[in-house]
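Example 3.2
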Amino acid sequence: MTDSATTPDRAPALHVAPSPHLAQTAFHTRGMMIDVLVALAPVLLATLLVFRWHGVVQVGLCVLACVAAEAVLCLLMRKPIAVGDCSAAVTGVILGLSLPATAPWFVGVIASVVAIGLGKVVFGGLGYNLFNPAMVGRAFVMLSFAGYMGASAYVVTDSLDVLTQATPLTMAKQNAAAWAAGQIGPENMPEGLADIRQFWPLFLGTVNGSLGETSALAILAGGLFLCLRRVASWEIPLGMLVAGFLCAALAQWIKLTPLTALQFMISGSFLFGAFFIATDPVTSPLTPWGKFAFGAGIGVLTMLIRVLSGYPEGVMFAVLLMNGAVPLLNRWTIPRPLGAK
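Structure, written as tokens:
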């Protein structure tokens, strides 16, 4: 029997750590990346149906190049090889889906090396990068190989009918001036523009464009899966869709584009950017209101670039610009502690 007089008093051991005190172990990097790959499966299937082997080759090259680039750069920097977390594979898939089907093989390889090297590893690796790696790589090849990435890259005589058509946004940009001047209207619309103004080709994806941006149905299916799995923050696509719809409606009302607001939003990479690019947890804000403002900013900038510049698409530049504003949004939207004045 122990003598209580000789036994020292023992205070209860309280281990206090910074919040959050509740965690879900299922949310780890590899699991989240696998969820993204699963969500991209409908988009990849639509790509295969529309572009056939062109899409397989382009996406496959980008994935292999991204994984190889990360492995080599990690070895050169004497860091653990992190390809097992699947983040490089996700970057490769998103980058490949953002390229034209007919871009030469070296464009995808160079974009992949730049995406991993300048967009990710140079900042210290996953979790430290300021800008979306896939968009960094695409912006580099867009500026370096404009001939392979411009409007002409999407129109190529091939066995696939879709590759002989202009993209919806290119067609809208070419006819915007005539629409504003009243030279064309619903009664005398050019044949190509009349085709892309139909809802179902844009929704199902039977139009030309980058590999992963044509089918709104596939993108919505994968995007909703990400939101339900809580891998993507729903505030970002919501802010982007609301702001983009309002700006597109205004542009159509003042006759800056022949497309309606709904057609404008399901054309190009707007939906793909809203669910798979802007929702990158590393390069997006931390707070709910910051996420909504981040998405709204991308939506507004995208529509401004589409309507007021000579470039028919604007998601890539809008995402990179708003990535740079993320620290400011985090500072502006700091949550107020309970009971604070």
